[in-house]
Amino acid sequence: MFQIPIRFRRVAIFAGIFILILFVIEFNTRLEELNRLNNQRDQVRLLATEAIQTQMALETQVAYAGSTAAVDEWARTDGHYLKDGDHPVIPLEQPGSQAVIVNTPIPNPTPMRNWEIWWDLFFDN
Fold it and tell me: What is the pTM of this model?
């Protein structure tokens, strides 16, 4: 049989290569973790920016709601109040014309069949 002489130098080289491979694998794992954490950081920054922008918009709305301009706008549009010097416009009919009467048609009830009546009596609430 053919025997390969085992030398200390050869064992040391193989051990060194094995340790180097382990270091490369560990380095790769750490780089993946770094990329994942960087992506999470970016997402959290985005959410924080959105929250701050929402807060600023709400603070602006609160400041406007407490102002006199907002009260005046509400009083004229929703409150239907008049300011001194305003002239309300009330639409009137022309003299001699008759008011238009719109008749809404009454829908005809559809007769129910006997089995539908019994079904409703027993199973509907």
Answer: 0.47
